[in-house]
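Input chain follows. Return structure tokens only.
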Amino acid sequence: MIRKVLTGGINSGILSRQKFLLLFKEFFRKSIHLCSAFIPLLLGISYVPVMISLSCVLCFYVVSEFLRLNGKQVFIISAVTEAAARKRDENKFVLGPVTLVCGILAAAFFFKPLPATIGIFGLAFGDGLASLAGKLFGRIQIPGTEGKTVAGSLTCFTAIFISCWSACRFNSCCMGVDITFVALVVASIGMFIEVFPLKDFDNILIPVILAAVSQLLIFQSVY
């Protein structure tokens, strides 16, 4: 009896530690997503240097990942990558940072500043907070989504709606535009994309598609 109690206590402690490490990794990884919300501000200050800097960071990361996979650690970068990597990425090339930067670069390059901002905000806040909310509060899973939860999807919708509405509210380009309608459409599409099990490729699809949709809605309404 005592042995069973001790064994149960040890197993419970191991599970608690594993859950804590999982949450820590998720928080650390999504904090990188959230930090990308500063990119539109930096692009507004100095567009070309920021785009060049992001491209250089992308190239440096790719090289460091190949070195890491060959047993050569790159100062700070390799440690950060290992700390943020999911279990599915163990001993593999961690693609998340690549798709994250590519999504930001594509939105900033192909679309006007406001739609690009909305797309990047959707990636930063919508995708970033959805996973955290799902891990912390998700109880009801959505069938066929590989573990996505109702709590995560609702958080994604809310975060994108608020960030899109706020970006439009204080931008002169939206004079005469129904920004609530725009935010509802963009948030709905963002939630729809996020709920699919796209792995790391939602980092590209979310900013690009949301930027394209918001540009169509905002500037078609203006003109």
